[in-house]
Design brief:
The protein is an alpha/beta fold. It has nine helices and seven strands; from the N terminus they run E-H-H-H-H-H-E-H-E-E-H-E-H-E-H-E. It has a domain of about 160 residues: Rossmann fold (3-Layer(aba) Sandwich), CATH 3.40.50.
Length: about 230
Amino acid sequence: MKATLAIYDMDRTVTRGPTFGPFLWHAMWRLAPWRVLLAPLSLLATLGYALKLYDRGRLKEINYRLLVGPAAPERLEPVVQSFAEKQLATNILPGARTRIAEDKAAGRRLVLATASYRLYAAAIAQRLGFDDVIATDTRVDARGRTIATIDGSNCYGLGKLDMIEGWLQRQGLERDAVHIRFYSDHVSDSPVHRWANEAFATNAHARLIRVAEQEGWEVLDWRDRRRP
C-alpha cells in the first residue's frame, strides 16, 4: 500500500494573505523599531526586483536585512511565536482548516511547502497540525544570530519541486511508492502540480485557473472574501 502525502503551499493557499511582509513588520517593531527609517530602502529594493536586477530570493534577503537584521535566538523566538499566534487568529482560511483536518483524518502525511522562511513557517505549521515543513532556510552568523542570508535555495517555482524531491529522498521515500496531492494558489507552483498525483488549484489567480483547465486539475476556492 502506498504512503499518502498532502502537500500544501502556505501564502494565499492556507492563509488569506501573504506572511513575509507582515512578519518583517511584526519583527521590526519588536526587535528594532528604529529600522522603520530604512523602509524607503525596502521600496527601492522592490523596484530593483521589478527591473530584474536580482531574483526573488535576493529581494527577500535584502528586505529581511533592512527591516529585521541579525537577531539572537532568545530574542527572535518570542517574536516568531507571537507572530504565529497572530496568524492563527486572523489569517487562516476556514476552508483550509477543514481540508487539512480531512487529509489528516484520512491518514495523509501533512507537509507544508512554502517559499516563506522556515523560522516562522514552522511555527504556523506546528499549530495547524502539519507533520513536516519544506521551506526557505536561513543561516546563522559567527555569533549564532539568525541572519537574512538564505541557506540553500529559495523554495519557489522549480526550486520548490527540487526541494520536495530532496526531502523525499532524505525521508527514504521513492516517488513511485507515494501518492501525493498538492494544493497551491499560484502558477509558479505548476511544476509541482504536474508532478503530483492529485493537483488542486486552490484560491487560484487567473493564470493558474487557465492552466488548471488545460491540465484537468480540480479548482478549489476556500476564500471567504475577508481582507487579511
